[in-house]
Amino acid sequence: MKKNNKSEKHAKPSINIGIQEKDRQKIADGLSRLLADSYTLYLKTHNFHWNVTGPQFQTLHVMFEGQYTELATAVDLIAERIRSLGVAAPGTYKEFAKLTSIEEPVGVPSATDMIKQLVEGQEAVVRTARSIFPLVEKAGDEVSADLLTQRMQLHEKTAWMLRSMLE
């Protein structure tokens, strides 16, 4: 006859993926900051998509839609990587507000100021991703390194494209 042992029934399954628990936690903390920055940039970009006006309306409206759509996919990938490391992903505005390095806009900026703010946001995401890289390299976490590399490449390119609109 089997005993009904609560501690066995609700025990957290161990994770043995070749990365120490303390390293997984540190990496997940960094990825949580990346998630918060990415989600905040998603919200800012979506807001600007809705509220842009002026002679470049059509161009910016479509461009911002492409950017926030890509960010929506990215936040899912980042959150799922955090979960793969055995850590709960942040998922509330309150948590994101504490973790993000990106400022929310005040009011509705001009189209030019929207572009400037999005350049700053794209660059902030790159800096956050780059700051996590030494942790993942030291821990031998190639999967997180690949995710970070892809995010940095995309955000650097997007920042360049946005900056080009300001020239």
UniProtKB/TrEMBL annotation:
Residues 29-167 form the Ferritin/DPS domain. Transmembrane segments: none annotated. InterPro entries: DPS_DNA-bd, DPS_DNA-bd_CS, Ferritin-like, Ferritin-like_SF, Ferritin_DPS_dom. PROSITE patterns: DPS_1 (PS00818), DPS_2 (PS00819). GO terms for molecular function: DNA binding; ferric iron binding; oxidoreductase activity, acting on metal ions. Keywords: DNA-binding. Belongs to the Dps family. This is Probable DNA-binding stress protein.
